[in-house]
């Protein structure tokens, strides 16, 4: 049956769309207002071992590695809501990194995790993560996320990922004999420019589906839809917030045109002063804001942190040393190979121990190690640099969430970062 004939069977006439790429904000952008100067997210609660590729988690897997399992993750989310976190952010994971720890080898998916957390919490914002390059159709994602936003009373946001992973590509059949495109020697079927163009088009159609009261026709380079409609539409007005991580010029340009919250990165503490770290974040934050402003848009600046804390700096440092000494090098090696697109049994000689530690403990996010006072000070530094939203991952999730609520949030209030 032809598309034209199929459309005649639909109950309502569809509306042709004109826009294919951003900036595109039908009805305007969602509000970027925050309840507190520094928005706090609990990150990577839905995957085995979170962001900690360390054999230390094997000393008590139920406590350290398997917090993702339900109902343990339900209890963790409810605790985060109770102590004052503003939202949760799921880590998008389709295949883990192996090693002795089976790092990230199990996870709640973007649809189930968000829906389950919607009914388990009352106030907590819910950010789910979608890999747009894995050929999920925007209609499928629009339907799932609109329904979850409806169930949650308008608390959903969507984290858009355009990055690739070799093992995920294989699972989804990219480069296989049934594909109409050949993979390159690394198994990668799309260039960075193509992936961001695809993400751009994905977001445009997603926004059409979220906001249009009428069925829409969309004829894009990567996605097509005819008479497509989502009902119920999202409760969020005018739509759920979109976020993305960006570091390359291509990534920043895409996120500035289509997303509302953007994750940035800066220098680590090792070998750099607090002023240097703060300045690195401030420079990137200014660059991202300027990119958004060039398109007549505003964005929320976000940062990601791996936090190890205790009553004193010394005790926190001792724990961090233990985690570092037990790094699951095999798992980190797998991660390195998959994201570099070069399958490898060993890390290259030029990859030093600091790089391994940064990747294995926080996937190169900001490592904050110290007393509760130190943690509060470093979060204040990030805020001073322009970061308005921090997503935090803890290697000992349940106890860390409670300790953060009891000790760190009061210190953030003293610094004017929480009300």
Notes on the structure:
40% of the residues lie in helices and 15% in strands. The chain has a single domain (33-414), classed as TIM Barrel, CATH 3.20.20. It has an eight-stranded parallel beta barrel, surrounded by eight helices. A three-stranded mixed beta sheet has the order 1-6-7, covered by helices on one side. Helix 7 (192-211) runs parallel beside helix 8. It has helices at 3-8, 61-64, 72-83, 110-120, 138-152, 166-171, 192-211, 249-258, 274-294, 313-325, 329-340, 353-360, 372-384, 397-414; strands at 15-16, 39-43, 87-89, 125-131, 156-161, 216-219, 224-228, 241-245, 261-264, 300-310, 366-371, 389-394. It is of the alpha/beta class and 419 residues long. The chain is built from 14 helices and twelve strands.
Second CATH tier, the architecture: Alpha-Beta Barrel
CATH topology: TIM Barrel
**Bulk shape:** globular
Strand count, sense and barrel status of the largest sheet are: 8 strands, parallel, barrel
Question: What integer value in Å does the Rg equal?
Answer: 21 Å
Q: CATH top level? A: Alpha Beta
What is the string of SSEs from the N terminus onward?
Answer: HEEHHEHEHEHHEEEHEHEHHHEHEH
Structure annotation, total helices: 14
> What is the domain tally?
1
GO molecular function: monooxygenase activity; oxidoreductase activity, acting on paired donors, with incorporation or reduction of molecular oxygen
Protein name: FMNH2-dependent dimethyl sulfone monooxygenase
Region (Disordered): 1-31
Keywords: Flavoprotein, FMN, Monooxygenase, Oxidoreductase
